[in-house]
Amino acid sequence: MEYGLKPLGREKLWLLALLMPTLIGLLFGALGSVVATVVLSFAKWDLLTPPSWAGTINYVSLVTDQKVLLSLTNTLKFTALYVPGVVVISLLVAVLMNRKLRGVSFFRTAYFLPAVTSAVATALVWNMIYGRDTGLLNFILERLGIPAVCWLCADTAMYSVVVVNIWGAIGEGMIIFLAGLTAIPREYYDAAEIDGANDVQQFFRLTVPLITPSIFFQGLMSTINAFQAFDYIYMLTRRGQGDSSIPVVVFSIYRNGWYFFNYGGASAQAIVLTVVVAIFMAIAFWLERRYVVYE
Amino acid sequence: MKMRLFTLTVLVSLLLTACGGAAAPATEAAPPAGQAPAATQAPAAAAPVEISMMMWGDPAELDVWNQIVADFHQATPNITVNVEVADWDSYWTKLKTLLAAGTPPDVFTMDAPLYLDYQSRDVLLNLQPYLDKNPDLLKGVYPQTLEAYKTADGMYGLPRDFQTIVLFYNKDMFDAANVAYPTANWTYDDLRTAAKSLTKIESDGKVTQFGFYSDLWDMELIWSEAIWAYGGDIINADHTKTLIGEPKAREAWQLFHDMMFVDKSWPDSTTAGEYGGDPFLAGVAAMTTIGHWAVPGYAEAGFKWDIAPMPKGPAGQATSVNSAGFVIGKASKNPDAAFEFLKYVLSEPAQKRLAELGFACPVLASVAESDAFLKQPTPIDQKIFIDSLAFAHMKPVFKGYDEWSSAIGDGMATIWTGETELGPTLDAVVTAADEVLAKNK
Q1: Is B34 within a domain?
Q2: Which of A114, B23, B48, B311 is the most exposed place for a label (fewest CB within 10 A)?
Q3: In whole angstroms, what is the distance from residue B313 CA to residue A129 CA?
């Protein structure tokens, strides 16, 4: 797994010089906040009076706090639905976009558009689509003789929100997969065709194995994004003062830290979230060693 | 590997010390606790002073405040006020960050219910020494608007404007349904009856016009008013017990519930969300209850509307009074200049400008009862907002308000979407709210 050229002699110096601005930023920005968060997760702090040591109380109370547990469950549910959805659909879209279609650049742009549009603005449009009495989707369903569905009510909201999030993420996934697909030499397909493999066989026997690095990368990125998902969910399910009918962990952190004067508890939740993501990453890298093929 | 571990240890310890350093200013600001600062040099010396003022608000509000600040500078040339503005949500995050860093603005706006969350954490300047020196300052101010800022050792904040809640109604819808306009003698039963006759339900069960809508997340818009009118209360005097589940309060909740789910004259929260959260403004609800801040927006609605006082309940008439005010950061280096500005905000010229803005009611009686406030471009009887003070209850102010009100707002939300039953949910909400109160004691 060694890539590219190795820097030699004076190049190393330049390399370091060019990396310095980012490294310093990461060290004092990112690492600084990480360390501060760890320390604060063991403190009782309301932001206004000096913090005091609280031991593991913040962590212990997470386990008994129904609201926190609910938000953690919601985040896990969301991730379980969102990650496979994004990977599969954006791979399929990428395969379609990789063909010689008329107006392919139009479709590529169309699929990528959500990635560069303000999530708040698009969520407002989705609200118009999902509305129970005034929504576009129910209007169409009723024309087809299907009874209207309350898309953003308790039992369906999670799925409706996942759909919007997947829709918003297809564009970026498509770009990753397109890059992977164009790297597969044309000759492999020619050879497969001569051997009599049909399109479906080609896809599963040739494309999928050769694109595993992209699948791995996309799975990793989607998982991280899923744990941080906030904007669409909030805009589609919000109630008063930072509340939502599908509270996810990020909401819970935000509210505890900024509304409830409980910065210590918010930090503890952030640490738990980080640990959960880290476990997923560890699993992903283990899978990578077993299944991902690098040419 | 060893080397890397060493570097990491050094870095972590460096960062830890850096964090420790950042916390220091906050403690340094603590020593001059309680008593009067350098308030003795009362005559504002000619030395130029700059103070910062932070507020929430939209562009229209900012324009007016810039004007007030310019007027103030003209009257007091040695003091310059630098205005900083943010929208409501980011205002509080920004303020808390600045306070945590020990560099708060000299003057900042405060919503009365949240005041004690800050005052009790010792980040506000006690204004009492200044008020004692200016005994006439609060003479013309409505006493109902001062109540929220009083503490055992004096006032740490002053109101700038206030809100009372009144009933807004769509005259076009009343005319079309041939229903008599609301009067000052209306009861909640009258409201319910009228709402029912103003509701239009299609043959397939779809409601195309609602009689009433008000938001039920925060207490200010309808539920505190109705609970008071039914003879109940919100919270006990020492803020240890939530009273919204007591029998009389339950009558008010039952009324909302029945209007929503029996009469269908009040859209549930999912439906209201489809109309941008304000079905009255969207022209699909005939009545709503809201404060003066809604007037500029409603003035641009495409229908005729008017206002009436809140309805009466079995225990009489009730509305809610809430104020926005100004406080001075305890860490302010120019408290004298900052107080000069607060004084100016309560002066007639500044209160007149606020009245013209039309978002709120001035706290200075002489301005609120003058043409500056009563003769605004929107042709409604502005006096109703002022007269409502006669039966207004103060929106509760206590430490932990934000978390407590969220416990109630979030907890009750499932009733208003139709997912849970009123009775058991209300019981659970009261328990959860009381836990928050115990935690914030």
Answers
A1: no
A2: B48
A3: 41
Nearest to B364 by CA among B114, B60, B136: B136
What is the rounded average pLDDT for all residues in chain B? 88
Instruction: Please answer yes or no on whether A47 and B97 come within 8 Å at the CB atom.
Output: yes
**What's the mean pLDDT in B350-361?**
92
> Are B142 and B65 contained in the same domain?
yes
Contact predicate B310/B165, CB 8 Å: yes
Same domain, B212 and B301: yes
Same domain, B389 and B429: no
- Three-state SS at A96: helix
Closest residue to A47, CB basis, from B100, B122, B275: B100
- Using the Cβ of A131 and the Cβ atoms of chain B, whether some distance falls under 8 Å is answered with yes
Rounded to 5 degrees, what angle do the CA atoms B197, B203, B204 make? Answer: 120
Residues 75-104 of A with CB under 8 A from B: none
For residue B369, being part of any structural domain is answered with: yes
Nearest C-alpha in A relative to B104: A48
Provide the CATH topology of domain A56-291.
MetI-like fold (1.10.3720)
Contact A241 B123 (CB under 8 A): no
Q: Which helix (DSSP H) or strand (DSSP E) does residue A179 occupy?
A: helix A154-182
List the domain range (segments joined by +) for residue B402. 166-321+396-439
Interchain CB contact of B398 with A (< 8 Å): no
The answer to whether the CB atoms of B402 and A241 lie below 8 A apart is yes
- CA B194, B196, B202, B207 torsion-angle sign: positive
* Nearest chain B residue (CA) to A52: B23
Domain assignment present for residue B13? The answer is no
Burial string for B350-378 (b: 16+ CB within 10 Å, else e) reads: bbbbbbebbbbbbbbbebbebebbeebee
As a whole-number percent, the residues of chain B with pLDDT over 90 amount to: 78
Residues of A in contact with B218 (CB under 8 A): 240-241
Residues in B touching A261 (Cβ below 8 Å): 117, 121, 400, 402-403
Q: How confident is the model at residue B380 (pLDDT cuts 50, 70, 90)?
A: very high
Whether A138 has a pLDDT exceeding 50, the answer reads yes
Domain coordinates in residue numbering, chain A:
56-291
CB contacts, 8 Å: B14 with chain A: none
Domain shared by B96 and B212, yes or no: no
**Which of A39, A133, A260 is nearest residue B271 as measured by Cβ atoms?**
A133
Asked whether the predicted pLDDT for residue A155 surpasses 90, the reply is no
Closest chain B residue to A257 measured between Cα atoms? B93
- Best probe of the B interface among A130, A151, A259, by most B CBs < 10 A, is A259
How far is the C-alpha of B99 from the C-alpha of B115, rounded, in Å? Answer: 14
What's the structural domain count of chain B? 2
Residue tagged 């050229």 (tokens) = A5
Return the DSSP state at B359: S
This model of the complex carries an ipTM of: 0.78
- Asked if the C-beta of A258 comes within 8 angstroms of chain B's C-beta atoms, the answer is yes
> Domain with B84 in it: what CATH number?
3.40.190.10
Residues B225 and B293 in one domain: yes
Asked whether residue B175 falls in the same domain as residue B240, the answer is yes
> Domain check: are B350 and B289 in the same one?
no
Both B118 and B137 in one domain: the answer is yes
Structure confidence by residue, pLDDT tens digits, A177-235? 999 998 899 899 999 999 998 988 999 998 998 999 999 999 999 999 999 888 888 88
Short-list A153, A176, A30, CA closest to A89: A176
Quote the DSSP letter at residue B204: T
